[in-house]
Protein backbone atom coordinates (compact mmCIF):
# COMPACT_ATOMS: atom_id res chain seq x y z
CA UNK A 1 0.00 0.00 0.00
CA UNK A 2 2.89 2.36 0.71
CA UNK A 3 4.19 2.05 -2.86
CA UNK A 4 0.74 2.74 -4.29
CA UNK A 5 0.28 5.77 -2.04
CA UNK A 6 3.73 7.09 -2.94
CA UNK A 7 3.10 6.61 -6.66
CA UNK A 8 -0.32 8.29 -6.48
CA UNK A 9 1.23 11.27 -4.70
CA UNK A 10 3.92 11.59 -7.38
CA UNK A 11 1.36 11.27 -10.17
CA UNK A 12 -0.89 13.83 -8.50
CA UNK A 13 2.05 16.25 -8.20
CA UNK A 14 2.67 15.87 -11.93
CA UNK A 15 -0.97 16.33 -12.79
CA UNK A 16 -1.13 19.59 -10.93
CA UNK A 17 1.80 20.86 -12.98
CA UNK A 18 0.28 19.40 -16.18
CA UNK A 19 3.70 18.95 -17.76
CA UNK A 20 3.85 15.18 -17.76
CA UNK A 21 3.35 12.69 -20.53
CA UNK A 22 3.56 9.01 -21.26
CA UNK A 23 4.74 6.47 -23.80
CA UNK A 24 2.20 3.87 -24.89
CA UNK A 25 2.91 0.50 -26.45
CA UNK A 26 -0.06 -1.49 -27.77
CA UNK A 27 0.56 -5.23 -27.52
CA UNK A 28 -0.90 -8.34 -29.04
CA UNK A 29 -2.37 -10.69 -26.46
CA UNK A 30 0.22 -12.94 -24.87
CA UNK A 31 3.12 -10.47 -24.84
CA UNK A 32 2.22 -8.27 -21.89
CA UNK A 33 3.76 -10.47 -19.16
CA UNK A 34 7.23 -10.37 -20.71
CA UNK A 35 6.97 -6.68 -21.59
CA UNK A 36 5.77 -5.80 -18.08
CA UNK A 37 8.55 -7.78 -16.42
CA UNK A 38 11.23 -6.15 -18.59
CA UNK A 39 9.74 -2.69 -18.03
CA UNK A 40 9.63 -3.03 -14.25
CA UNK A 41 13.16 -4.42 -14.12
CA UNK A 42 14.40 -1.55 -16.29
CA UNK A 43 12.76 0.95 -13.95
CA UNK A 44 14.18 -0.70 -10.83
CA UNK A 45 17.62 -0.95 -12.45
CA UNK A 46 17.45 2.71 -13.52
CA UNK A 47 18.17 1.78 -17.13
CA UNK A 48 16.54 4.92 -18.52
CA UNK A 49 19.31 7.24 -17.25
CA UNK A 50 16.93 10.18 -16.91
CA UNK A 51 17.05 10.64 -13.13
CA UNK A 52 13.67 11.26 -11.53
CA UNK A 53 11.95 11.66 -14.90
CA UNK A 54 10.19 8.27 -14.81
CA UNK A 55 7.26 8.39 -12.41
CA UNK A 56 5.21 5.27 -13.09
CA UNK A 57 4.14 2.46 -15.37
CA UNK A 58 0.87 0.71 -16.09
CA UNK A 59 -0.03 -2.48 -17.91
CA UNK A 60 -3.69 -2.64 -18.92
CA UNK A 61 -5.38 -5.72 -20.33
CA UNK A 62 -8.13 -5.19 -22.87
CA UNK A 63 -10.26 -7.56 -24.94
CA UNK A 64 -8.35 -7.20 -28.20
CA UNK A 65 -4.97 -5.94 -27.00
CA UNK A 66 -2.93 -5.06 -23.95
CA UNK A 67 -1.37 -1.66 -23.35
CA UNK A 68 1.88 -0.91 -21.53
CA UNK A 69 2.41 2.72 -20.53
CA UNK A 70 5.38 4.51 -19.03
CA UNK A 71 4.67 7.86 -17.38
CA UNK A 72 7.23 10.63 -17.32
CA UNK A 73 7.50 13.92 -15.45
CA UNK A 74 7.96 16.35 -18.37
CA UNK A 75 6.78 15.90 -21.92
CA UNK A 76 8.32 19.05 -23.36
CA UNK A 77 11.99 18.03 -23.05
CA UNK A 78 12.71 16.45 -26.44
CA UNK A 79 16.11 15.01 -25.51
CA UNK A 80 14.66 13.28 -22.45
CA UNK A 81 11.60 11.91 -24.22
CA UNK A 82 13.80 10.59 -27.03
CA UNK A 83 16.10 8.90 -24.51
CA UNK A 84 13.09 7.27 -22.85
CA UNK A 85 11.80 6.09 -26.24
CA UNK A 86 15.16 4.66 -27.26
CA UNK A 87 15.63 2.93 -23.90
CA UNK A 88 12.13 1.43 -24.11
CA UNK A 89 12.96 -0.02 -27.52
CA UNK A 90 16.20 -1.49 -26.17
CA UNK A 91 15.05 -2.92 -22.82
CA UNK A 92 11.83 -4.34 -24.26
CA UNK A 93 13.60 -5.81 -27.30
CA UNK A 94 11.07 -4.20 -29.62
CA UNK A 95 11.21 -4.84 -33.35
CA UNK A 96 11.98 -1.82 -35.56
CA UNK A 97 8.37 -1.63 -36.73
CA UNK A 98 6.93 -1.45 -33.18
CA UNK A 99 4.95 1.75 -32.70
CA UNK A 100 5.51 3.70 -29.50
CA UNK A 101 2.97 6.48 -29.01
CA UNK A 102 3.93 9.57 -27.05
CA UNK A 103 1.14 11.50 -25.35
CA UNK A 104 1.74 14.77 -23.57
CA UNK A 105 -1.86 15.58 -22.73
CA UNK A 106 -2.86 12.17 -21.38
CA UNK A 107 -2.20 13.04 -17.75
CA UNK A 108 -4.82 15.78 -17.87
CA UNK A 109 -7.46 13.13 -18.59
CA UNK A 110 -6.09 10.89 -15.85
CA UNK A 111 -6.25 13.82 -13.45
CA UNK A 112 -10.00 14.14 -14.01
CA UNK A 113 -10.41 10.39 -13.43
CA UNK A 114 -8.31 10.39 -10.24
CA UNK A 115 -10.12 13.40 -8.78
CA UNK A 116 -13.52 11.89 -9.63
CA UNK A 117 -12.49 8.58 -8.05
CA UNK A 118 -11.25 10.29 -4.90
CA UNK A 119 -14.46 12.31 -4.61
CA UNK A 120 -16.57 9.19 -5.09
CA UNK A 121 -14.53 7.30 -2.48
CA UNK A 122 -15.03 10.19 -0.04
CA UNK A 123 -18.80 9.90 -0.40
CA UNK A 124 -18.78 6.25 0.68
Describe this structure in words.
The protein has about 120 residues and is of the alpha+beta class. It has a single domain (about 20-105), classed as RNA Cap, Translation Initiation Factor Eif4e (2-Layer Sandwich), CATH 3.30.760. The chain has four helices and four strands. It has a four-stranded antiparallel β-sheet with strand order 2-3-1-4. It is globular. About 15% of the residues are buried. Residues about 110-115 have low confidence and may be disordered. Keywords: Initiation factor, Protein biosynthesis, RNA-binding. One of its GO terms (cellular component) is eukaryotic translation initiation factor 4F complex. GO terms for molecular function: RNA 7-methylguanosine cap binding; translation initiation factor activity.
Features:
alpha+beta, TIF_eIF_4E, four-stranded antiparallel β-sheet, 124 residues, single chain, RNA 7-methylguanosine cap binding, TIF_eIF4e-like, globular, 4 strands, RNA Cap, Translation Initiation Factor Eif4e
In short:
Belongs to the eukaryotic initiation factor 4E family. The protein is α+β, with helices and mostly antiparallel strands and 124 residues long.
Blueprint (SSEs and pairs):
Elements lengths: L1 H16 L3 E7 L4 H13 L9 E8 L4 E7 L5 H14 L8 E4 L2 H18 L1
Antiparallel strand pairs: 1-3, 1-4, 2-3
Helix pairs in contact: 1-4
H-E string: HEHEEHEH
User: Compute the gyration radius: what is it?
Assistant: 15 Å
State the strand order across the main sheet: 2-3-1-4
Helix content: 40-55%
β content, as a range? 15-25%
Amino acid sequence: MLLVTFMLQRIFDLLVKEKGGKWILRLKKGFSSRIWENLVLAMIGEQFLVGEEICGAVCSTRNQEDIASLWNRTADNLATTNRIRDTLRRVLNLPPNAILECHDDCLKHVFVFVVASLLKAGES
